[in-house]
Amino acid sequence: MPRRHALLAASVAAIWGVNFVVIHVGLEHFPPLLFAALRFVLVALALPFVPRPGVPLRYVIAVGLFMSAGQFGFLFLGIDQGVPAGLASLVIQLQVAFTVVLAVIFLGERPKPVQIAGGLLAFGGIGIIAAGRAEAVPLGALGLVVLSALSWGIGNVASRKASSPHPLGMLVWSSLVPPVPLLGLALLSEHGIGAAFSTLDAEAVAALLFVVIVSTFFGFGAWTTLLARHPASQVVPFALLVPVVGIASAWVLLSEVPTAAELAGAAVVLAGLGLTVKPPRASLRRLVGRTPPRGGVAAVDGGAGTG
To answer: Is residue 50 within a helix (H) or strand (E), and if so which, with residue range?
Structure first.
């Protein structure tokens, strides 16, 4: 993976870490399923300005259902029902394991031994963090975040399988899917929908715009682009940075003070991620050399293959 793509992936992870704090703020103003539905209603407004995704309709529906509706519906419900923002940013990274396993089964990807070792080390760090955060958290709420991670993993593989030539188009067109089930479930199960609009204030609008413009358009737009160009096993491990940023931002902005176990686990996550994304020595020489190989260092497994 070229250095600029690695930096882009790290930037997306940082934004998504902060996004958990923003979600916490948004859920103080909106019921969870309504909040998730509004996110994708606003994203879908960009439809006239983006190209069609150029892939079969089944992939658009799959990405919309799993990467969007499932991931964020379950996540917002889990946070609303008691999972702290910092812990949610950690648990959802189980999507890395789900994605790698599903990519092996359905895409035939074969991660290198050093990537496997780095992933295991990073998950060891997540385990250390989880040991210091899982007390007094409702089990059902925690299970919802695990379901969110599974849905994201399925969406990652569907996006990678689709290999849309227009990732932003894929993001926007697939956003037509989630409002239907999310709004339907919100109307059936959530109270206070009218009050959410009648008491709308600047903080609520800012939270909604952040998750739409920054987290979705930039974050998922960049994520789907990277997954279309690189194997999922190279891109997805960057998401392990999300809980590090998420826990830090929740500490600063929400006073969720991390324990010593969380800080130690975050360091282990970073070490594991370093192993997972470290390029082979030959690729490293090309990265620092004067001339990249034909097709760039990102040319892997035949090109495009996501988020």
So the answer is: none
